[in-house]
Amino acid sequence: xxxxxxxxxxxxxxxxxxxxxxxxxxxxxxxxxxxxxxxxxxxxxxxxxxxxxxxxxxxxxxxxxxxxxxxxxxxxxxxxxxxxxxxxxxxxxxxxxxxxxxxxxxxxxxxxxxxxxxxxxxxxxxxxxxxxxxxxxxxxxxxxxxxxxxxxxxxxx
Length: 157
Prior knowledge:
- This protein has helices at about 1-20, 35-45, 50-65, 70-85, 85-90, 95-120, 130-155.
- By secondary structure, the protein is mainly alpha-helical.
- It has one domain (about 1-15, about 30-155).
- Helix 2 runs parallel beside helix 4 (about 70-85) and helix 4 (about 70-85) runs antiparallel to helix 6.
- The chain is globular.
- The N and C termini lie close together (about 10 Å).
């Protein structure tokens, strides 16, 4: 019961951070908060948080941002599946190596989003699509430390 509350609370905080509005010139610097939190829980507790949770959280992010319904759900499921397959290996990596892997996963998220936007005619090619991946990877060590301390504080197994 306690662990479900902590999971929900961390996901709600991530959704609140996703909902923050950025000025138009800083929109490329928005990190993928919800994806960051899901990836942490998948690496830490893959039997409790998995593809289903990622799909639901992605659907909530779609509703929150007002975009195409199913876009974030699709990308979160794909990325969570890749992370769940490799979670044992990821646990052994150092934080900076994990951050590089997070960069790759969020880059895949951004590329799929760019592809969908480009297909619908809403996006032009730019390398700035990788900026959220860079920012998210830079935030990974801090997010990992905070969520791990929460997990240990509430003895979530």
